[in-house]
Every structure is written in C-alpha cells, then in structure tokens.
Amino acid sequence: MKAIWKDTVIAQSDDTVVVEGNHYFPADAVDPRYLLPSNTRTHCHWKGEARYHTVFVNGDANPDAAWYYPSPSEAAAQIQGRIAFWKGVKVVE
User: Fold this and answer.
1) Which of 79, 51, 50, 54 shows the shortest CA–CA distance to 64?
2) Which of 42, 90, 22, 44 shows the shortest CA–CA distance to 52?
3) Choices 1.10.760.10, 1.20.1250.20, 3.30.160.270, 2.170.150.40: CATH for 2-92
4) What is the per-residue pLDDT across 81-90, written as a single tens digit (0 to 9) for each?
5) Which residues, in sequence order, are CB contacts of 36 under 8 Å at separation 6+?
6) Contact criterion met (CB below 8 Å) for 72 and 48
7) N or C, where is the chain less crowded by C-beta within 10 Å?
8) What Gene3D superfamilies does the database record attribute to this sequence (predicted)?
9) Hey, how many other C-beta atoms are within 10 angstroms of the C-beta on 21?
10) pTM, rounded to two decimals
C-alpha cells in the first residue's frame, strides 16, 4: 500500500492494519520528511487519544492529515506504532 499526496509517496508498506476502513502504516514506513507535528488531539471512545501530524509536501500543508494513537486502548492494540491518513491523502495498492 502507498499513501500519496501531491504526487508524492509519503508512506509505503505491505504491512498495513485496516481499522474502520483506514490503513495504518508502520511508523517506520512513513517518510518523516513529510510530517510536521500538530497540537491537535481527539478522543475515540474505543481507541483512545489520537494525535496528529500536518502533511507537508513541496511547500503545501495539509493540516492534521495524518494521525496515530500513541497509547491505544487494549481493543486497538494492533494500531500501536502506526500512522493513518485522510484529508485527500490517497491510499492505494
């Protein structure tokens, strides 16, 4: 699977975990050059607290387009250490 924004591959892995239709990539499969930390936090009733990154490619920012759960609940343990994408970031085979 590949996560692509602005014709740039941000993440690539054969080992994604799909939860609620979102592919969670291993953190080491995501190119850190394209992520900037965000202060945004949200809470999912069954996964826990999510934190976000802004995806930044060639001078263009996509705020909070990547998210992860630093300490997911036991029910969501399979996404520990993984990052997912949305807001126009395409995930394709």
Assistant:
1) 54
2) 42
3) 2.170.150.40
4) 999 999 999 9
5) 53, 54, 56, 61
6) yes
7) C
8) Domain of unknown function (DUF427)
9) 7
10) 0.96
